[in-house]
């Protein structure tokens, strides 16, 4: 009884016992598995892993309960994560549904918590190498993806589309050294495939599957917008042209309207095999550009061509107004 009491007092004086697995060493054979899914027998763990760029730190996480009886979408059973420095577990924790882990060269790490609820929501979490929290940011939307600079200074995450939510499609940028959110935006260039943090300037670069990359300032300002506009127009993609048109409040400058016309003409040359609605949309946009350039007879002819393809394309009233204006 005395031994039990003294033992209890000793633990109380030294603080709470560390979580299971903390300060435990793991065999290199388990850690050197190059696959994304790993088995760590010492931790009774099967889950995901990601390494820091310098190879020092490994972040492990499992979107399932400790018993291994339930995983993925569920209503209970906390997931678990571990941070390993070399072969030593230095941080352990639990959140509802840990996913998309990132770890920096200094051990700073991030996770996206997909939460138990079926509602559109998520939580972005950032921690120091000792497991202490830096940032907890909740979203009224699911989280699409995240990024972390190699030095652990900056992080980003972007939400999925969530109708009627102010977080819908929002990209949020964090300075983890200062422990603050520095800015956010809904990127005109869309959801990125991955993120870079150039060492020579304070920006976040959004990278896309076709190799394109566009810089955003830490406050969310789109720094490479002109470059993106030119790249989008060069593609001749009618939906990108529509997006550019709307970004101006449906009132592009005459200079931009001319550039849009060139892009739309290039699209329409090769659009014969496309569905009538898509071709009609391109004609609708072309007619709108002609209106901005005050070539009203040409705009009317193009609107009529669009209506012949798709009577519901949305320019019937405008065509009638132009018919009266031009006396056609």
TrEMBL record:
InterPro entries: TPR_rpt. SMART domains: TPR. It comes from the Bacteria. This is Tetratricopeptide repeat protein. It comes from Brevundimonas kwangchunensis.
């Amino acid at each position: 009884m005395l031994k039990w009491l003294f033992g209890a007092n000793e633990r109380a004086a030294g603080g709470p016992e560390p979580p299971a697995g903390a300060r435990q060493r793991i065999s290199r054979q388990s850690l050197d598995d190059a696959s994304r899914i790993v088995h760590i027998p010492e931790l009774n763990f099967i889950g995901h892993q990601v390494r820091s760029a310098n190879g020092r730190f490994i972040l492990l996480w499992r979107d399932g309960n400790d018993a291994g009886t339930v995983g993925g979408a569920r209503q209970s059973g906390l997931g678990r994560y571990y941070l390993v420095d070399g072969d030593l577990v230095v941080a352990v924790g639990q959140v509802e549904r840990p996913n998309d882990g990132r770890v920096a060269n200094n051990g700073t790490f991030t996770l996206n918590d997909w939460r138990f609820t079926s509602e559109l929501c998520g939580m972005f979490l950032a921690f120091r190498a000792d497991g202490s929290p830096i940032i907890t940011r909740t979203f009224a939307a699911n989280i699409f993806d995240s990024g972390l600079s190699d030095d652990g200074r900056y992080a980003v995450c972007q939400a999925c589309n969530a109708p009627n939510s102010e977080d819908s499609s929002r990209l949020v940028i964090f300075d983890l050294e200062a422990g603050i959110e520095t800015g956010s935006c809904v990127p005109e260039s869309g959801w990125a495939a991955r993120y870079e943090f150039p060492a020579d300037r304070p920006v976040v670069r959004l990278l896309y599957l076709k190799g394109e990359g566009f810089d955003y300032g830490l406050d969310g300002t789109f720094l490479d917008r002109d470059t993106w506009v030119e790249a989008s127009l060069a593609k001749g993609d009618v939906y990108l042209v529509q997006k550019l048109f709307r970004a101006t409040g449906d009132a592009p400058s005459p200079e931009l309207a001319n550039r849009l016309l060139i892009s739309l003409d290039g699209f329409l040359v090769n659009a014969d095999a496309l569905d009538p609605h898509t071709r009609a949309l391109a004609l609708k946009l072309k007619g709108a550009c002609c209106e901005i350039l005050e070539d009203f007879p040409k705009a009317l002819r193009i609107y009529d061509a669009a209506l012949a393809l798709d009577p519901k394309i949305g320019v019937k009233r405008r065509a009638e107004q132009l018919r009266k204006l031009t006396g056609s």
